[in-house]
Design brief:
Oligomer: single chain
Shape: globular
Bound molecules: adenosine-5'-diphosphate, magnesium ion
Number of helices: 9
Number of domains: 1
Strand content: 5-15%
Distance between the termini: 18 Å
Length: about 210
C-alpha cells in the first residue's frame, strides 16, 4: 500500500499544532497510526539545528538560516519521512517546504530560484501528497499566540512587515495537492474541514 504525506502549513498561531493533534486522534479512530513530525526538527540532528535556529541570541544571515533549515529537512526526509512512506505509513508534518517559501523568500527576501534549489536538494524532490494551508490573518494568529502565553522565539519577534510578507505567500500559494482551509473559526470546524479534504484525497485510508 502506498504511503501518504500530509503537510500542515500557515502562519504562527494558525492552529497547525492543534490540528495535528486532532487529525492524529481521528486517524487513530479510523485505524491509521500516523508518523507525526514537526519542522524544523524530528531527528536528533534536526532538533539540535532547531534549537540553534530559534535561539534568542543568534544573528543568522538569511542565507545561513536557509541552509540550517535545509540541513534539518534533509536529515528528516532521509531518516524519517522517506522510510515511513516506503513502509506505507501516513506521515503528518507540521510545516514543510512551503514554510521555506513563506519565510525565506517572502519574509527574508532571498532569491526564489536559490531557495527552490536548496529545497530541492533537501527533499530530493519529495512532494507532499496534500498540503493544507490554514488561512488566518497574521494578527489573529499573533493574538492567539499571545493569549496562549507561548514564549516568543526569534522568528515570532520579527517585525510586523516580515509577518505580513510571510502571510502573503501563504495566502497566494497554489499548486498540486495544495488546499486552503479557513482557520478563523473553531478548532473543531477546522478539523472537520481538514478531515473532509483527507477523505477526498484518500478515501481508502480515511473513508467510512
Ligand atoms: N481555531 C482556533 N480558534 C481559537 N484558538 C485556537 C484555534 N486553534 C488553535 N487555537 C489556539 O491558538 C494557539 C496557537 O495554536 P497552535 O495550534 O499552537 O498554532 P500553530 O501551531 O499554527 O502556531 C493555541 O493556544 C491554540 O490553543
Ligand atoms: Mg505549532
Amino acid at each position: 500500500m502506498a504511503g501518504f504525506f500530509l503537510v500542515l502549513e500557515g502562519p504562527e498561531g494558525a492552529g497547525k499544532s492543534t490540528l495535528a493533534r486532532a487529525l492524529t486522534a481521528r486517524m487513530r479512530t479510523a485505524g491509521v497510526e500516523p508518523v507525526v513530525v514537526r519542522e524544523p526538527g524530528g531527528t536528533p540532528a534536526a532538533e539540535a539545528l532547531r534549537h540553534e535556529l530559534l535561539h534568542d541570541d543568534r544573528a543568522w544571515t538569511p542565507a545561513a538560516e536557509l541552509l540550517y533549515i535545509a540541513a534539518a529537512r534533509a536529515d528528516l526526509v532521509a531518516k524519517v519521512i522517506r522510510p515511513a512512506l516506503r513502509d506505507g505509513r501516513v506521515v503528518l508534518s507540521d510545516r514543510f517546504d512551503l514554510s521555506t517559501r513563506a519565510y525565506q523568500i517572502g519574509g527574508r527576501g532571498l532569491p526564489a530560484l536559490e531557495v527552490e534549489w536548496v529545497n530541492q536538494a533537501a527533499t530530493g524532490g519529495l512532494v507532499p501528497d496534500l498540503t493544507l494551508v490554514l488561512d488566518v490573518p497574521p494578527e489573529v494568529g499573533q493574538a492567539r499566540q499571545v493569549a496562549s502565553g507561548k514564549r516568543q522565539d526569534r522568528l515570532d519577534r520579527e517585525a510586523e512587515a516580515f509577518h505580513q510578507r510571510v502571510a502573503a505567500v501563504y495566502r497566494d500559494a497554489t499548486g498540486p495537492g495544495l488546499v486552503h482551509l479557513d482557520a478563523t473559526g473553531t478548532a473543531e470546524a477546522l478539523a472537520d474541514a481538514a478531515w473532509r479534504a483527507l477523505r477526498r484525497a484518500r478515501p481508502d485510508l480515511f473513508g467510512e
